[in-house]
Amino acid sequence: MKKTILLSLLLISCFSVKLFAQANQTLVAATNQFLNTLTAEEMKKTAYDFKDTLRYKWTNLPVGLVPRPGIQYGSLSDNSRLAFHRVLSAALSSQGYLKTTSIMALDDILNALYQESFDKGRINEGLLKQMQSLKWGHGNYYISIWGKPEANSVWGLNFGGHHMALNITCDGNKVSMSPFFIGTDPSEVKFGKYAGLRVLSKEEDFGFMLINSLSESQRSVAILKQTVPGDIITSPQASQRITSYYGIAAQQFDEAQKTILKLLIQEYTHNFEHQKAHAFFEKIMQSGIDKIYFAWIGDLDNNKPHYYIINGPDFLIEYDNVGFAKDGNHIHAILREKGNEFGEDLLKQHYLQSKH
After folding, report:
1. How far apart are CA 226 and CA 231, in angstroms?
2. Are 310 and 294 in contact (CB under 8 A)?
3. In DSSP terms, which residues pair with 144 in a beta bridge?
4. What is the tens place of the pLDDT at every residue in 175-185?
5. How many angstroms separate the CA atoms of 296 and 283, rounded?
6. Which residues of 298-315 are buried (b: 16+ CB within 10 A; e: fewer)?
7. Of 78, 124, 248, 321, which sees the most CB atoms within 10 A?
């Protein structure tokens, strides 16, 4: 019986390694296929040395405020765009891919909403021009490749713009996708052609589901008595970092509450390609769900400012929904893999094992 179990575990392990290798090979192949569609001039804008420190400098602010390295997605030929979508499909799950492309499309919707508000006299021309100067738009996202995409080398890919920062670091079959930032403005479209659209719906809904499932005594521990932060605390613009655990430990949750917590964590981890998503989530579970803390600030209903942190030994999730009008309709959210931001841990292992 023991031999049968051991054999099964070995088969599962070998199968997982093969799947990891296949997933990484798909990403490498897709990235090189994309690079092969670029002209020499476009390659100069896209390709960087892997050790260039610019790789670590990310932001979620509009391009009109903070320029990005890399090539502008909107400047690409149709052939290059087709190839780049294959890259996104290789790196992300179906839900992650749809969130990413929907966030891009939401920028055009946001422009249309401001134009409609101006046309109907809801805002003045000065505010309209101020918003337009931020240069958000479906095409204003930037792609940069760091190093040479190969199965046995270290390399990276960054894709970012307004409310999107995807940072990928690869070393063989090991992949880091931290930090991963997503956001939406509005989080719910209130009027016009796309009224009702909610691109990051479950990040919000599962959060409310969890806090509202707690008893009064649990809430007294989970809810922090302070003003809702105007943004995530660990944004690249902020110097402050979350180094302590706040709120309530999942050890105090019942099984139903732990299930909701798992669903909420998976809504973030499962944006990634299947193998990376499950490996990351399994790592979190192996460290122990009881060691995860959940904290909430703000209202217990939507369309009002609210915020939460989910903090465990291996990861940090931070979510903020305030908005300029303080109406709880503008999401900023981030997932961080502790000790492995921009591939810190996998690069450390790579250099220790390297002869160079």
Report:
1. 14
2. yes
3. 158
4. 999 999 999 99
5. 24
6. bbeebeebbbbbbbbebb
7. 321
With left for phi above 0 and alpha for psi between -120 and 50, is residue 298 left, alpha or beta?
left
Could you give the CA distance from residue 63 to residue 69 in angstroms, rounded to a whole number? Answer: 10
Total residue length of the chain: 356
Strand 306-311 with 141-146, pairing: unpaired
Contact 291, 249 (CB under 8 A): yes
Whose structure tokens read 């964590």?
A: 265
Phi, psi of 216 (to 5 degrees): -60, -40
Residues of the chain below pLDDT 50: 8-13, 15-17, 19
Both tokens of 1, joined, read 């019986």
| Contact (CB, 8 A) for 300 and 212 | yes
Whole-model pTM?
A: 0.90
Closest CA to 203 of 290, 340, 330, 62: 330
Q: Is 200 exposed, middle or buried (0-12, 13-18, 19+ CB in 10 A)?
A: buried
Phi/psi-derived region of residue 147, left when phi > 0, alpha when psi is between -120 and 50, beta in every other case: left
Q: Are the beta carbons of 181 and 333 closer than 8 angstroms?
A: yes
Q: Which two tokens stand for residue 197?
A: 């659209």
pLDDT for the residue 158: 98
Task: Indicate the average pLDDT of the chain.
Answer: 91
Rg of the chain in Å (alpha carbons) = 21
The predicted pLDDT at position 350 comes to: 59
